[in-house]
Amino acid sequence: MKKIKDFLLKLSLVKKTILLVVVLVVGYLIVSKLFLNKNNQTTYQTEKAAKGNLVVTVTGSGSVASTNSSNITTSATGVVKNIYVKDGDVVKTGDKIAELDLDLEGQQKSSQAWTSYQSAKNSLQTANDNLYSVQADLFTKWQSHFDLATNSLYQNGDGTPNTPERQSQTAYMVSEDNWLSAEAKYKAQQKAIEQAQSSLNTAWYAYQQASPIIYAPISGTVSGLSLQIGTVINSQSSNNTSATTNKIANIKTDALPTLSINLTEIDVPKIKIGDKATITFDAFSDKTFTGKVISIDTVGSVSSGVTNYPTVILLDTKSNEILPNMGVSANIITNTKDDVLLVSSSAVKTDSNGVYYVEILKNGKPVNQTVEIGLSSDSQTEITSGLSEGDIVITSTSQITNTSTQTQSVFGGFGNRGGIGGGGNVRIQGR
Fold first, then answer.
1. What CATH number should be reported for the domain holding residue 182?
2. What's the pTM value of the predicted model, to 2 decimals?
3. By the number of CB atoms within 10 A of the CB, which of 31, 124, 247, 404 ranks highest?
């Protein structure tokens, strides 16, 4: 009996011990949860609704166009024997840039170009000579028709035309047709002279390209001249195709630089000719330039399923630092408003009904406030009603969970425990 009583006593002690452990564990979990929840803190990033100036822009990227510069080229080949300019020199159209001692291929090209020029010159002279005879025939036919039309048979005594008689007389109709035919030949000969003059200009340019003397094609400042006395200029080939010209240098004019910016189909309807723009260059992003829109390509182009609309911006100032094909970014100003109530665009939200609202702090708690908005930029939105200047607006919310707390172990002693498995401060973004 004594052994049974001892066994029952031990069994009772075990049960009490197990029950105590369970109670302690459950109590610890409850207390820990309450303690951790107590340490959850919600913080708000806020700002004051304030009045200011709103600038609405459209952003695009592109490059500097080459519209204010031209290449100095030549199709002549040989050895450079004279150089008449250097980088930075100002030249006029037709000024000498350099002179070559032509090789055999260069001499052949120059001779052929000169022959073509002389042929075009002769064609123009012939066209001018033919104009004299055509003009003389026109005057003769016109005078003949005038004399016939003003005689008494075809003209009344008061000077008015005798229309019925004109319509009934074959001689009158033939005379008029001869005059009109001569006039048509005269006009056709004038067109022939224009064409001959254009051919002569082309032949002269081709001769200049093949000439041993390299000329400036336009007036401006020379840059990128890489020639030296003794430099050999050969015919170049690329992909088995002979190059017709070699680039010698570049001439930059005094015209203001232009930029070509690509805009999306969403942005291009927002801009118009004359809109102001601010521009930054990839090469020197610390400087900002200004300009205005002078051209919008409303047809656009499609590449890889993306539609772009090239837009040309003319800079307000020029700079020697700006070079063709430099990368640029532009902000085109589409609208501005002064002295309006503004908040960050990130603070403005919409509910399920499409109604705009912002969260404001009242007595330390967030409250939804219905608002009406006006213009918006990438960073700011105009508030037309619903807010007053100085209202505290919530722009973002953060919840901080502090699990790095000294807690007492249920099994005795104290430990620095950070949640299950230990750890430190954990920052959770959002609400």
1. 1.10.287
2. 0.58
3. 124
Q: Is the pLDDT of residue 121 over 60?
A: yes
Side-chain half-sphere exposure of 268, counting CA atoms within 13 A: 18
Burial level of 70, CB count in 10 A (0-12/13-18/19+)? middle
**Are 118 and 242 found together in one domain?**
yes
Length of the chain (residues): 431
CB 64 within 8 A of CB 326: yes
Q: Which residues pair with 233 in a beta bridge?
A: 78
pLDDT in tens, 25-72: 666 666 555 555 545 577 888 898 899 999 899 999 999 987 778 889
The parent domain of residue 159 ranges over 75-251
Tokens coding 157 = 């005594």
C-alpha angle 361-429-343 in degrees, rounded to nearest 5: 40
- 310 with 65: CB under 8 angstroms? no
Tell the burial category of 242 from Cβ atoms under 10 Å away from its Cβ (0-12, 13-18, 19+): exposed
Longest dimension (CA), the chain: 169
- Residue pLDDT, tens place only, 80-117: 999 999 999 999 998 999 999 999 999 999 999 999 99
Percentage, residues of the chain above pLDDT 90: 46
The answer to the question of residue 349 being in a domain is no
Q: Which of 211, 229, 224 is nearest to 251 (CA)?
A: 224
User: What's the CATH number where 331 sits?
Assistant: 2.40.30.170
Residues 182 and 131 in one domain: yes
